[in-house]
Amino acid sequence: MWGGDDVIADAKLALSRLTRLRMASDLEQKEIVVIGGGIIGCTSAYFLTRHPAYDPLKHNITLLEASKIAGGASGKAGGLLALWAYPTNIVPLSYRLHAQLAKEHGGESKWGYRRIHCGQLAAKGRPNEKKETLEGKPSNGASVSLNKRDGKALGKVTAAGLPKDLNWFAPESVQSYYEMGDPDTTAQVHPYQFTTAMAELAAQKGVNIILGSVTSIDTTNGSGVRSVTYEDKATKPSHTIPATDVIVSAGPWTQRVYPPAPISGVRAHSVTITPSKPISAYAIFTEISLPRDFGHKDTFLKSKRPHGKTVTPEIYARPNNEAYACGEGDHLVPLPKTTEDVETDLARCQDIVDYVSSISNELRDGEVTVRQACYLPNVEAASGGPLIGPTGVKGLLLATGHTCWGIQNGPGTGKLISEFVFDGKAKSASIGSLDPRRVL
Length: 440
Hints:
It contains eleven helices and 19 strands. By secondary structure, it is an alpha+beta fold.
């Protein structure tokens, strides 16, 4: 028979256990803030909500974006996916996750996921001439190329190693071709569609997406994150939200948010073209030898621009009869405040159009639908990037510096970030070489 003292002791023990359970429950509460609404921020938010430990009753996730989701490079990139990309420690994981995401969420129709061929093409550019009609007058842009390959032309492209279905390059321009990747190792997505889809899927699981510019991260003198302060885009008032975990994934703007991060930005221009006829599913890295005095005056140019002897635009055929082409980067204009303030140099866009038109009738006779620019994030350190993981400040993580492979490595990075937050370490890949603490 239990005595009075025993009952009191049992009550104290039960109370102690209840207190410990409540304390443990309190410790499990997380206020997670993801800074940046590009592909890295959106995939981080997505995979945080898919982690086995995620509980929407205990874990609040806020994604802060200064302008709009996918407003920067994540909406204006090429969208190439490749097992031969870099860094090799996260590429296989991310490439596999792309396939899984497409299968689970209907990526083929929602964001243009498909397997493709990829190759390197050496070509000789033709003088850039205005399109002509059958009457010899300038075209109004509605004409369609009727160029057909005769036996001599087919012999040239066959000798150059050009695949039979890669038939949208002028035979007289083609010099050599070799395959870099096939549908087993290479794929593509439409970056804007993929990034916005990841944001929507994250929101469906409880992520709160706010448009606002981060002004400060309170780290209590470096001992740990406590809160994030931002200015609302629409109403402008400043708000401070609590934080136990902060993921800085602001691409080239990362240093504006977290000054110690060695991240810079390089501007890149691109265009999209509706070809004069459908083109096959290839991503092409070109090396084009230009003729002397290449170029012409047009709406954007007051005089002919100087060009290098060799240029290297990339051309990606996309679903729905669209071609994406991009040129080399530049540092002529400093990084602006937000993605909405990026300055597009229309002359540089025209250069890209002229370059690809010099080797393809289908692109020359097509319609340019978009001229745009964005900034890519680079890691200013000998070890390169990206940087994924802890910063040394408790609760503060970096996920940035992915250069031109952000779309490719977005899912892998997002999954690893979810593991850092909920498991305390990366489990899906060995990424010690990408540890931010090595360069901070």
